Amino acid sequence: MATIRRLQPESDVDALIALSRAFFAEYEAHHADFFEIDMLHDADIISYFSQTVDAEDAATFVAVQDARIVGYITIFIKSQAGYWKIKRVGDISGLMVHKDYRRQGIASALLSAAVNFARERGVRYFTVYTAITNQAAIAFYEHNGMKPLYVTLLGETGYPSTEAR
Question: Using an 8 Å Cβ cutoff, are 88 and 80 in contact?
Answer without folding.
Answer: yes
